[in-house]
User: Fold these one by one.
Assistant:
Number 1:
Amino acid sequence: MEGGWAHAVVQPEVGGLLLRRPFEAELLDAPGHWRDAILKVARKDMLKTLPPADGGASESPEAVEKRFAAWTANKPYMFRLAEKVIRHEMGKIVEQCGGPPPKDGQAGSPGARSLSASQRLLVEKMNAYHSTWQEVLLLLSYSPEEGAIAVVINRPLSQGVTPQLAALIYGGQLALEQHLKVASAKGVENAFDGRDDIRQFAEAFREGGVVYHGGPEEGDKPGFVVHGNGDVLEGAKEIAPGTRIFTGGIKAAGESVRRSEARKKREELYQNPGMFEAVARAAKATGMRPPVEGLVETDVMDYRLFVGRRQWGPGQLEKEVARGMWQPAACARPLALKQCLALPKPLWHEVMELMGGDCAEFSKFEFMRRDDLLEEDDEEVEEEVKEEEEQVEEVVVVEQVEEVEEVEQLEQAESKIKEE
């Protein structure tokens, strides 16, 4: 988007974003069995591809580690290697659990009971990854002592708000159950009897309102609205000073949208704002109610409606960030408030590319694995990615060769000095 910006930050910040990192990146950054397993394969690859000149007899441990650090600095190589290790291990797990469980002493697959602790951990991490794949979260509140609350902003649930969805967003599960009960007893047309507030909210967002699945927690509680109109809406609250991102004011938002839609319809009727003003003056002269001056009118697309959220207890989010699950980001306000509808590029990819560096590389890797984003020139893009990876690998190998030669020269010089 024009004027959009985003950059990676170390700590989460209210009004900023959290982006789910690729599974391969998570395993590479999280200390433990699977990171060690990937590094073990990488070391074997290095020794096979670039063995020491004399079989390693004269190479010091420090020199080996220096070579290995340069080898693993190749991000494209490490990402692809992690991908291969994961695929291989998951294949073993599927094969191990794929058969029927043993019965009455007969042969059969022992299933999940036979998995090791590290295998179970891999499955758990994989399941968690799939349930949060490429999520982009807007952080609404954050404190290491109290935890954090965020909403997923790239999971549209509905464009257009049904009466049932309006009841759920406005009043939660209890309001929805009451709505269904009244509709069953009195008919759908009378389902909002006694709840004009919900009826008006439903009318305001019925056609253009965009509802998002904000996360798996608190789905039965009243939803909420995120917007940038807090300075003109009663009940709105800025999530943090200076962000100009607001929650709350859902009733005022509905009234504002209804006024805007009513004005648009009247202007369409008269096809001319001047004619509309003339009709307003005539209405005032005859005692009819004219348009009220000074009341705020906003567009329905100014608002994001959310059902559910993501929550963390004290210290939980920090641990997940440290394990490589989430990439915190600061970003432009319009980027955090934009609607995720018919975007030319998925929001996750857009933000990752804006951040640059490793994040942009991760976006490129993930893009090439998605069949739903393929276009006519994707073969050229894929070829370009492969060429870049090969160039990086060639540079790393050349650097490693030069480092080995430099170490050998130094060792030879030291031995000559000793002889003299």
Number 2:
Amino acid sequence: MPIADLSALGFSLINLSNSIIVSHLGHGTRFIREKPGRTVKGNKSMSMDYREYILDHYRHPRNYGKLEHPDAHAEDSNPLCGDQLAIDLQVEGDLVTAVRFQGRGCAISQATASMLSEMIEGKTVEEVVQLGKEDVLDALGIPISPARTKCAFLSLRVLHRSLALAGLEKPSTGDEDDE
């Protein structure tokens, strides 16, 4: 896949011999070697694998669907680009035993929802409550421009709202600004 395709995900790229410079406003510039097998915070290769990983989650979302009788449910949207998302959780005791999401929108919002669903299934409610923006950015493995943060953090916001509505998390009292 051509490197130029990364611009569709909101990246600025410069190819210098064996390195690629990936630049995003707000997250600085990162130098990435174009050698297979290099990893960042997990097992995603920094060559083209992170892009493929995001697109795979977008094209083949994990845990997509709806739970028949969820213990926690919330939905929200990002009016700036039209992303929509709903999350259902099944909680037994203190353990998240099932997660499903439904939505539509850009690759970043839907891939992040898929990744987040994999991250939380089987975790305790307390572990899920502790998830924050850095965890989402780590899961994506790429810097996100300020214009795309609302897309990337939509699933996290909906997740925390579902827990709060179910009485499993104290509602946020702060500003819900994603930047």
Number 3:
Amino acid sequence: MLCLSRKLIAACLLVAGMAGVGFAQTAVEAKPYVSQDGHYHVLFPGEPQVATEAKTVGPGVQVDMHMASLEKNDGKLAYMAMYSELPADVLKAQTDQGMTDDDRLANCAAGFINGVAGRVITTRPIRLPGVVGKEIEFDRTDGTKGVYRVYVGGRRIYQLFVGWNGAVPPAGEVSDFLDSFALDR
């Protein structure tokens, strides 16, 4: 059986392709994670695992997915921050066709929901300097719940999410993680 974070990572890989009973938990001291190449930082509730995976996202189009992820409670609670860059020629072709960052953002959000086969509970626009963003709270029929954020600016796509199934995140931990994300430009 795949753990929760692997399911959600797979969904995020599709996105970038443009594309319960709780139990008591104790709060963990936040660990700063800095992505030098990704030019961002975020506070994880523990030490994340870091990986890069090349993914084919279209005919002849391959991107590297740079991920930092953390599983807790035997995979029932997962945190992830990820960035990828569209190839320059793909961005140019999209821009020449009139596609904007807002269009790419909409494609990412739709791709995520389709990829996780989720139901949108709430959605709201969010912003960081130089990028447009969207936050989606979702659930699935298997009991998985989560919050997904995506930011798009030019070639760069940033994605964050927290997902849980059978575990209740400690009070404030989800918002602490999501709200700590910042760009280092």
